[in-house]
Design a protein that fits this description.
With about 450 residues, the chain is of the alpha/beta class. The chain is built from nine helices and 35 strands. It starts with a strand and ends with a helix. Bound molecules: uridine-diphosphate-N-acetylglucosamine (UD1) and calcium ion.
């Protein structure tokens, strides 16, 4: 049995009424990841042996988001200590170790901060509390520290006297607690207080009566940013984006105008990628080295190979896989398509459910007609092919390697390797016809106006 297990217990039973939403608060997103997803990600990054999420009744969507981790239900919101109780069974069998108690609506605590709490635990503290000194201490619980620097108690604002309220060191709510002792302490918590709730914070004073050491680790207020309203959510998004832009640049990514680039939590960008202004990333994007993304692109679910040039004004949608050196130009949309090395689609094109071979050139205005109103069909284009401008490829259809399709074609049948296909009305010419037509029409018009006048 491991002697230093780590469990993460994430409290997420609150509905978050101030969000005015049919979604539970922790299901709202920052950087395309739910608040809960951010907290779970942090817990996972610490190699937690177990992650347990406490939800309210009927929060099946939260349980689904937490999967494969365990979810337990708090029947009624009777306070933060009460919220820990339903996790008792889910946290047994881990032996000695630490429970990190986290909050589903506080997504930005750094793993390093939690690591520091775990180290303080290893140094002999039975409880480690994450404290902070907010600009406005407001109604946060206050951390009452003794002369030797140890923590004596957490006093909730409503229960605090004037001297205690004057303390500026506040409780973030986050705790690292001795796993084998937690529930024994929780059982001793009563609801004999101003709110009539079971306060998790009471376990500090209870542990102290047993001679257990309690300690404080301090974090910056920005890490403890919590989300209670839509305005908080927008603030959280801008905080997250600001941090991520700095990390990207520190990792060797050029952002020409950082403030205007929006990443998703999982956007993966290699060094020496250049990203222009006003580029937005949705989930699941990987970009290899030396790619250039020009201004005003929207990119999600895409893999972009080294040296590719994208945009300006390009849209890459889920399933877009671009090999090395691909060029995707302005007003080109690519969805569920594999574009081979060095292939180009530079202007006004839709490539959906397609395969394009290496070095093929897709002319301006080419459309893969992939949908018949019921089903999607694939377009397969070989290598070194040339698709003339304004071609409609009516899928399912195949164009062989090296084939040339004349501009303006509507391609409905297979095009063989190295063939030329022109699938449009043949050009017809009548010499002098236009001039004769003009003379005839003008004569008619003149006669009409004479007879009226
Ligand atoms: C709590 C702390 C306070 C601290 C503050 C930091 C207690 C008693 N007080 O106060 O010292 O300064 O957080 O923000 O812990 N929750 C449940 N079930 C419940 C009650 C709460 O899951 O029955 C969850 C909520 O969804 C929320 C979190 O626990 O995510 C904190 O609860 P909240 O009621 O906001 O605690 P505070 O009164 O703010
Ligand atoms: Ca709160």
């Amino acid at each position: 049995m491991p002697s230093n297990s780590i469990a993460a217990l994430i409290l997420a039973a609150g509905k978050g009424t101030r969000m005015k939403s049919s979604l539970p608060k922790v299901m709202h997103q920052v950087a395309n990841r739910t608040l809960l997803g951010h907290v779970i990600g942090t817990a996972e990054s610490l190699n937690s042996d177990r992650v347990v999420v406490v939800v309210g009744p009927g929060m099946d969507n939260v349980a689904a988001e937490a999967a494969p981790h365990t979810t337990v239900t708090q029947a009624q919101q009777n306070g933060t200590a009460d919220a820990v109780k339903p996790a008792r069974d889910a946290l047994t069998g881990l032996g000695a170790g630490t429970v990190l108690i986290l909050y589903g609506d506080t997504p930005f605590i750094r793993p390093e901060t939690l690591q520091a709490m775990l180290e303080r635990r290893a140094d002999g503290a039975g409880i480690v509390v994450l404290g902070f000194q907010p600009d406005n201490p407001g109604e946060y619980g206050r951390l009452i520290v003794s002369e030797d620097g140890g923590l004596d108690a957490i006093v909730e604002y409503r229960e605090a006297n004037e001297a205690q309220r004057a303390v500026t060191l506040c409780n973030s709510g986050v705790l690292a607690v001795d796993l084998e002792k937690l529930f024994g302490w929780i059982d001793q918590v009563t609801n004999d207080n101003a709110k009539g709730e079971f306060y998790l914070t009471d376990i500090v004073a209870i542990a102290r009566t047993e001679g257990v050491i309690a300690a404080v680790i301090e974090a910056d207020e920005s890490e403890l940013l919590g989300v209670n309203s839509r305005a908080d959510l927008a603030g959280a998004e801008s905080y997250w984006q600001r941090e991520r832009r700095s990390i990207m640049m520190a990792n060797g990514v050029t952002l020409i105008d950082p403030e205007t680039v929006y990443f998703a939590a999982d956007t993966n960008v290699a060094p020496d990628v250049r990203i222009g202004p006003n580029v937005v990333f949705g989930p699941n994007v990987t970009i290899e080295r030396n790619v250039e993304i020009k201004a005003f692109c929207h990119i999600e679910g895409a893999t972009i190979g080294a040296g590719a040039i994208i945009g300006p004004f390009a849209r890459l949608r889920p399933g877009a896989v671009l090999e090395q050196g691909v060029h995707i130009g302005n007003f080109v949309e690519v969805k569920n398509s594999h574009i081979g090395e060095g292939a180009k689609a530079n202007h006004f094109t839709y490539l959906g459910d397609s395969t394009v071979g290496a070095k093929t050139n897709i002319g301006a205005g080419t459309i893969t007609c992939n949908y018949d109103g019921f089903f999607k069909h694939r377009t397969i284009i070989g290598a070194n092919a040339f698709i003339g401008s304004n071609t409609a490829l009516v899928a399912p259809v195949t164009v062989g390697d090296g084939a040339i399709v004349g501009a303006g074609s509507v391609v409905t049948r297979e095009v063989s390797k190295n063939a030329l296909v022109v699938a449009r009305g043949r050009q017809e010419e009548r010499e002098g016809w236009a001039q004769e037509f003009r003379v005839e029409q003008q004569t008619k018009k003149d006669q009409l106006s004479k007879s009226k006048g």
